[in-house]
Amino acid sequence: MSRERRREMVERGHRVLSTVRQCALLGISRSSLNYRRKGTRPEDLAVMEAMDQQYLSTPFYGSRRMRVWLGRQGQTVNRKRVQRLMRTMGLRAIYRRPRTSKPGPSGHKVYPYLLSGMQISRPNQVWAADITYIPMAKGFHYLVAIMDWYTRCVLAWRLSNTLDADFCVEALKEALGKGKPEVFNTDQGSQFTGEGFTGLLEQHGVRISMDGKGRYSDNIFIERLWRTVKYEEVYLKAYSNGREAKVGLDAYFHFYNNQRPHQALGYRTPAEVFSEESAPPDERSIKGKWTPGRAPEDPGNTAGLSLSFAPNLSN
Questions:
Q1: Could you tell me the residue range of the domain that residue 11 belongs to?
Q2: DSSP the chain
Q3: How high is the pLDDT of residue 130?
Q4: Is 108 within the bounds of a domain?
């Protein structure tokens, strides 16, 4: 559990346990209760919003190219500042990298990459998770989503104002209540390599696959999800705070799963394909959305997806 969550658990004025005793039991210092995270400067928020929008169009831009692009937009920013803000946002350039070195000690169990050449041909075969940055009027949040790769169905999501692992684990627990994948693929971010996340997958008998940083073919599907969510929801709404973001994203993901037709799915919705092809005839539902039992159709050019190349699919 993150330090911030433990601080929130302290109940001031408790009848039995003093504040000092509660802090000791939770493993935090008494002085940390008065800590308030320094807000992000407005000028940094403006740069971050600009980089976020540009990254959707050019995810292969690293800090050097991003700095040059910002300069052409009239924002003079040095590279160190761009690097710092990109780290804060969780952005990194996506491109094919040569295998010129072996990974060093990572501090976590190393899981193999299992998707090379795999044909994705059914729901619950492969799930994936990723985190993106959500800008707001004052500050920002992080959004994690868990998606079924074959159907594009968003099975669970969570918002957080920190990059701890707790909100990712909460999303995973919700997703596992709707099914179980054969393989779960993520990058090697600390939110996905911790015992809380990997242990839960292992308890459910799910094979864990982890790719290298910036592996372009493994990011393509969920990067397209982020682009869709941001252009169709986030940038249009310009959330004022986390509460507005949660309400807006909840409505959008319901629309995305249950109403938005996808060309790659034969103009059916993700929920239709997921429920029809993964659940028994009498249990075809997702998030309370029931669909009539009928023979599944061929979901267009989604069948037989191969991860050995980057296919040209559209949401």
A1: 3-34
A2: --HHHHHHH--TT-SSS-HHHHHHHHT--GGGGG--PPPPPHHHHHHHHHHHHHHHH-TT--HHHHHHHHHHTT----HHHHHHHHHHHT----------S-----SSPPPPP--TT-EE-STTSEEEEEEEEEE-SSSEEEEEEEEETTT--EEEEEEESS--SHHHHHHHHHHHTS---SEEEE-S-HHHHSHHHHHHHHHTTPEEEEPPTT-HHHHHHHHHHHHHHIIIIIHHH--SSHHHHHHHHHHHHHHHHHT--BGGGTSB-HHHHHHHHHS-GGG-EETTEE----PPPP-GGGTTEETTS------
A3: 92
A4: no
